[in-house]
Write a structure and sequence with these properties.
The chain has 457 residues and is α+β, with helices and mostly antiparallel strands. A six-stranded mixed sheet has the order 1-2-4-3-5-6.
Length: 457
């Protein structure tokens, strides 16, 4: 039995709304004996149940065609449906309408046509529609074929042919990549952040008082401390404020970092030495290369990166570009997975740090990062080194007046945008806030247009 084809436009109703008018129905879907695997997620949409039910009604060679929202491709609550479709290799074809409104202008729905097959498909096609009228007449078809094995329950990213062609052109025309002109680095790794990093309770000119991980109060020398960032949301174009101190038992000179000797610790920083000795047994449980250096960090990378020069700092996981500018030499921690990364132009480039910040913060370059980056829970995209280092950087010929002037115009506008972003933090009057928000928006648009002009976007 079964059907050769099932076609339709199932209802789009999120579980939160279903609960309001039909709680018993939701309870049935989520019941352990219920046949709906897509309802086992905390959050689901009714069209997922319709897809699951219809697949079961098809003959072995049958096809299903539904118009459904495509946000399940990427959102967390779409995971169960992505798992169902990829696990059984049911995808045959996706017609992606992007922002085009197939149901008219009455309300915005972002949809696709999903064509599914009962039998396993080794390949599926994705068609991106940019003109509804032409598409209805069967003209101007842009179809890309994918292997079924190339997707899983992880979020799906299908780059439109226009975007792929644009990225390709930007890379061809600009062979210089970010890692050619900038050093991209991770933070320090103490392997015991809760011992080395703390919030000060009180401070004098020479000391800082804090409560340690066991609630014991200590007062130690400020000279061995550096300002640090811990669990801070960094807004784009902000100037980070340190919110913690980190014990930094190293002297940095001429590009090298050396751990203070025990003798130096005892004579210069006796209070800090007493504190570290108090936590010695825990510090020795780390995987240390040299047990004699038990009071140093677990890993010695990036120690010389915090050398007083300004840098960009950004969170590795974010939904949008969040490159902040720091000239306070704030330390941050992190390895390959963050929580933060830093960047500073190489000494031999004339390109300004603000110019690089403008490129990284532009929506096209953010889209380039997202098209290759790993996705984490909640749709967060990794902005780690491997995903940003190969962005194409438009070199500037500083002997050409036009190019130099655009570069300098971008630099000035970015500096003004940082000022406006900072002023917003302390603006208390609504009118003042509104003015600054408008100013920030206008500056960001100006910066984006200038970047587009340079790249020919």
């Amino acid at each position: 039995g079964g059907f050769d084809a099932v076609i339709g436009n199932p209802p789009y109703i999120r579980i939160q709304n279903m609960v309001r008018y039909s709680e018993a129905e939701v309870r049935y879907y989520q019941w352990t004996e219920s046949p709906y695997t897509t309802a086992r997620a905390d959050n689901f949409d009714k069209y997922a149940l319709f897809i699951e039910k219809a697949l079961g009604l098809l003959k072995p060679n049958g096809l299903l065609g539904y118009v459904v929202p495509y946000k399940f491709f990427t959102i967390r609550s779409g995971k169960a449906l992505r798992e169902l479709l990829t696990g059984g290799k049911h995808l045959a074809e996706i017609t992606h309408f992007g922002v085009l409104q197939v149901f008219g202008k009455a309300r915005s729905t972002y949809t696709c046509i999903l064509i599914l097959s009962r039998v396993e498909q080794e390949h599926f096609a994705v068609e991106h529609v940019t003109d509804l009228a032409q598409w209805r007449l069967g003209q101007q078809r842009q179809i890309i074929e994918y292997e079924a094995a190339s997707i899983s329950e992880a979020p799906w990213e299908f780059l439109s042919p226009e975007a792929a062609a644009l990225f390709d052109r930007l890379r061809r025309k600009n062979p210089t990549v970010l890692s050619d002109v900038a050093s991209i680095f991770v933070g320090v790794q103490t392997s015991a952040d809760r011992i080395y990093i703390f919030e000060g309770i009180a401070e004098t000119a020479n000391t800082v008082t804090f409560d340690d991980v066991n609630g014991v109060r200590w007062t130690i020398e400020k000279a061995i401390l550096r300002p640090a960032l811990m669990d801070v949301q960094l807004p784009a174009f902000s100037r980070p404020q340190s919110n913690t101190y980190i014990i930094f038992p190293y002297k940095v000179d001429d590009g090298g970092a050396a751990l203070y000797s025990v003798d130096e610790m005892q004579t210069q920083f006796p209070r800090c030495w007493e504190y570290l000795q108090n936590h010695e047994s825990r510090l020795r449980t780390r995987n240390l290369q040299n047990p004699e250096m038990w009071y140093g960090y677990g890993r010695t990378q990036s120690l010389t990166r915090f050398n007083g020069e300004s840098k960009l700092i950004w969170p590795v996981l974010s939904l949008e570009p969040r490159y902040a500018y720091d000239d306070q030499d704030i330390l941050f921690t992190g390895g390959g997975n963050g929580p933060y990364y830093g960047l500073r132009p190489l000494p031999d480039t004339e390109l300004s740090i603000f110019y690089l910040q403008a490129i990284l913060s532009h929506p096209v370059f953010e889209a380039m990062v997202k098209s290759v980056a790993s996705t984490f829970r909640g749709g967060y995209k990794s902005h780690g080194k491997q995903f940003v280092q190969s962005l194409p950087i438009r070199q500037i010929d500083f002997t050409k007046h036009d190019e130099k002037s655009i570069h300098n115009n971008i630099v000035t506008s970015v500096q003004q945008l940082i000022q406006a972003t900072e002023a917003l933090k302390t603006a208390s009057l609504p009118q003042q806030q509104q003015t600054l928000r408008t100013q920030a928006r206008v500056l960001k648009q100006r910066i984006d247009r200038l970047i587009e002009q340079l790249y020919g976007i």
